Hints:
This protein is mostly helical. It has helices at residues 2-12, 21-46, 54-82, 88-92, 99-128, 149-154.
Amino acid sequence: MALIAVGLFGLAMVPESLPLHRIIVPMALVGIGMAGFSSPNTSAAMGVVSMDMLGIAAAVLATMRSLGQSVSMAALGGIAAHELGRDGGRVILGGDASGADAAAYLSGYRTAMLVGSAIAVIRMLVSLTRGRRPRRLPDPRTSPPSGTRAEAATGHRCTSLSGWPSSP
Length: 168
């Protein structure tokens, strides 16, 4: 999340005349940050779900991710276009744009990237407070009833002399 925040902050500092390297580096930071956050976050969410609920959990996670991306794009796009005023739709959809329109959009874009960067910092702080990941919940359809301390400690029911669970 720190890389995402730094990348979005870098995008907020884009100058009026845009050298290519001033946009490639911040966008790369955002992309690397998203990749670095998404996998552990998905693992943490899926790691606490019982095996029989993994399909539902994956669907909920994918839906929430898509919803979050859509809402954030709409919100940050609205912030960016806000500076254009009532004629913003015409300008964004390819109408005549003046230098003042470009400057207004750039101002709104910078504000949107700063808001996105602040949200990424908040998300990073929330993630840091998450704590240790609990163990996966057992599948109630296949988990044997526990009766010994060894079963409770290992989660396995030892029913053979070898110490391995016997096959059903």
